[in-house]
Design goal:
With 639 residues, the chain is of the alpha/beta class. The protein is 22% helix and 24% strand. Strands 3-4-6-8-10-12-15-17-19-21-23-25 form a 12-stranded mixed sheet, with no helix packed on it. The chain is elongated and about 135 Å long. The termini are far apart. The relative contact order is 0.04. Mean pLDDT is 79; it is low at 1-7, 69-73, 77-85, 521-537, 571-601 and 603-639.
Length: 639
């Protein structure tokens, strides 16, 4: 009461706490009346405020805004353009309400004037300066959000050693990220400004760090995600890039992690240890991989999840948490059918609470899940749902969604017709294993088309090539068994032609693979290409072998002759007169080398020489014919 006789005044502070327990919401309200004794701001802290006002607000204070005349009066224009009434003092709320949306005045960074009232000059009570909280004259909290401040944070403000919370978001502040001297600082909120540079680990001791929508560069420091104190971290919409840090902190206190449009790459599994998360926003990044069941199950307390505009793929798991109310998986590459993944999610929605489900622009297929009807019209309420841009199949009897989806009036997007197969024929006229088939019918353009072949209990699915709206092509497996084979086609998932109400099977008779004809030897073709036939080459080799054998035989005969044991003389004569025996066989010979050799051997018989010396002498008089037929010469001749 400002009229209190004591000269002071009081504040009524109301605290509201709410939590959920055993399917019931508990609410606790506390009211505290605080009586303020007049306490002047400490001289150094007041000097810091004055310096900040002079540098960031004074030059463009709203007090300097013209009240009438000039373009500045556009903020107060009325319906009557001829109204000459004065606009009065400039006011941001009125300016927002009347300014045109296409000029961007609704962003407080575009404030044309600063409307921070510092509270006059001279000594001031803490309660006389809006946006600060004091303890014994020292400033502990600053809240100058959205005041139109411009420029760089001044040094004296950075040196206030008692600061616990600083909120300067939604201004035009710039320069490197400020480094506050206070060791008691727990909250630093600088969102929506023009700060630049990189983010260091100096902020890892805070509890709440919000630097989104600035001009910061570099990567997200791993030290921040592994901080033992940080509970809220928001670095989104900057110029960051790099991998999503791996969280190794075993008991991370992180409750809110917002890193949208932060240039992040990598896997979601890097965040598996953030088991206390309530809010997670990783939208508009470059994340890849899958959304694993174990990861989702570890986020027991998760209330809202935004993974939109990434490169995530695969099927999605069930969301079992009873706390999850908002899910955005839009604009990814998730695929597969939606069966029971959102059944628990639907059951946990409470009537009247804001729910959110975005699955748009993925590759989901199969029938449109009826759980979506429950989310819209049961006791559970989803205020925002989008599943368009997928491949949910049309009803099997027409080209529309099922009746339950049409009666809702909700925009489900376009359905994908089931592929209709009218005929199948081999390209080359003969259907054998491995043959390419032409499938005619009704198809939609897709890169995920498949063919299915069925022969009794044997079934195979192969990729198909989309040729036109009336033709697909696919090939039989090379080991496909012969016999009548049913041919089906699907555009996505397992939505094959057989799901149609009016499905008529299409068959193709597959013949056994033909027996391979004998293939000519590669050496034959090679020989022919060089002008030499295989037969001729074989004959030449045989002739050479025969000549070699004959030469060896002749050499053997001559050796026997030289030894006095001719092959064609009875053995008895060899014992009586071996030399005479050889001489008799060559009586008709007209001398020559053999006769000379025989005579020399007869001479050696009468001479008492060592056996080895006789061999040497005998070798010395061997005839040239003997040399030609020697083993060495034979090798040289056929080498």
């Amino acid at each position: 009461d400002d009229d209190d006789d004591s000269g002071g005044c009081g504040d009524l502070r109301v605290g509201i706490s709410a939590w959920e327990f055993d399917n019931a919401t508990q609410l606790e309200v506390t009211a505290t009346l605080i009586f303020h004794e007049p306490v002047n701001i400490a001289e150094g802290d007041l000097a810091a405020l004055n310096e900040l006002w002079d540098a960031t607000c004074g030059p463009w204070s709203s007090a300097k805004a013209p009240e009438d005349g000039g373009p500045a009066t556009d903020w107060c224009r009325g319906d009557d353009e001829d109204d000459d009434d004065e606009c009065g003092p400039w006011d941001w709320e009125a300016y927002q309400a009347l300014a045109s949306a296409d000029r961007g005045e609704r962003d407080s960074r575009h404030k044309p004037y600063c409307d921070w009232d510092i509270g006059g000059s001279g000594q001031r009570d803490c309660k006389d300066v809006g946006g600060i909280v004091c303890e014994e004259g020292r400033i502990t909290e600053l809240n100058f959000e959205g005041l139109g401040l411009r420029g760089v944070i001044t040094p004296k403000l950075l040196n206030i050693s008692t600061l616990k919370s600083v909120r300067l978001g939604n201004n035009r502040l710039s320069g490197p990220l400020p480094q506050f001297a206070s060791t008691k600082l727990e909250r630093l909120l600088l969102s929506n400004n023009y700060f630049n540079g990189t983010i260091g680990c100096d902020y890892a001791t805070l509890k709440d760090l919000e630097l989104d929508r600035n001009d910061l560069e570099g990567s997200v420091p791993e030290c921040l995600l592994n901080s033992a104190t940080l509970q809220t971290l928001d670095l989104g919409h900057n110029r960051l890039d790099g991998p999503l840090p791996v969280v190794t902190q075993p008991h991370s206190p992180m409750l809110t992690l917002r890193l949208p449009q932060a240039g992040l790459s990598g896997s979601l599994n890097n965040l598996a240890k953030l088991t206390e998360l309530r809010h997670l926003d990783l939208s508009r990044n470059f994340l890849t991989g899958t959304l694993d069941t174990a990861l989702v199950q570890s986020w027991t307390w998760l209330m809202d999840l935004d993974l939109s505009w990434n490169y995530l793929e695969g099927s999605i798991p069930e969301f079992p948490s009873i706390n999850t109310k908002k899910i955005d998986l839009g604009h990814n590459a998730f695929s597969g059918e939606l069966l029971t993944q959102f059944q628990t999610f639907a059951e946990n929605q409470r009537h009247g609470e804001a729910g959110w489900l975005h699955l748009d622009s993925n590759s989901f297929c199969g029938p449109l899940p009826e759980v979506l009807y429950d989310l819209l019209y049961d006791t559970h309420t989803i205020t925002n749902m989008d599943v368009a841009g997928n491949h949910f199949r049309c009803a099997v009897h027409n080209r529309h969604f099922d009746g339950w989806a049409r009666v809702t009036g909700h925009d489900w997007g376009e359905c994908t017709p089931v592929a209709v197969v009218a005929a199948a024929a081999p390209v080359d006229g003969v259907a054998v294993p491995g043959a390419e088939l032409i499938i005619t019918g009704e198809f939609v353009a897709t890169t995920e088309a498949r063919c299915a072949f069925v022969n009794g209990a044997t079934r195979a699915e192969v990729a198909a090539s989309y040729i036109s709206s009336t033709e697909l092509r696919c090939s039989l497996p090379t080991d496909w068994p012969p016999g009548p084979t049913t041919v089906e086609a699907a555009h996505y998932c397992d939505d094959f032609s057989s799901v149609l109400d009016d499905y008529v099977p299409v068959h193709v008779d597959v013949s056994a693979a033909p027996t391979a004809a004998p293939v000519a030897s590669s050496s034959s073709s090679s020989s022919s290409s060089n002008g030499v036939s295989t037969a001729a080459l074989g004959g030449g080799v045989a002739a050479a072998a025969a000549a070699l054998v004959m030469s060896a035989a002749l050499a053997y005969i001559i050796r026997r002759e030289m030894a006095g044991k001719p092959l064609f003389v009875p053995a008895a004569r060899w014992e009586a007169n071996p030399i005479a025996g050889r001489a008799d066989d060559f009586d008709s010979a007209k001398g020559g080398d053999v006769e000379l050799e025989i005579r020399h051997l007869e001479r050696l018989k009468d001479v008492d020489l060592d056996v080895e010396e006789r061999k040497d002498d005998a070798d010395a008089v061997r005839s040239p014919r003997h040399a030609v037929l020697s083993p060495r010469s034979s090798r040289e001749g056929f080498s």
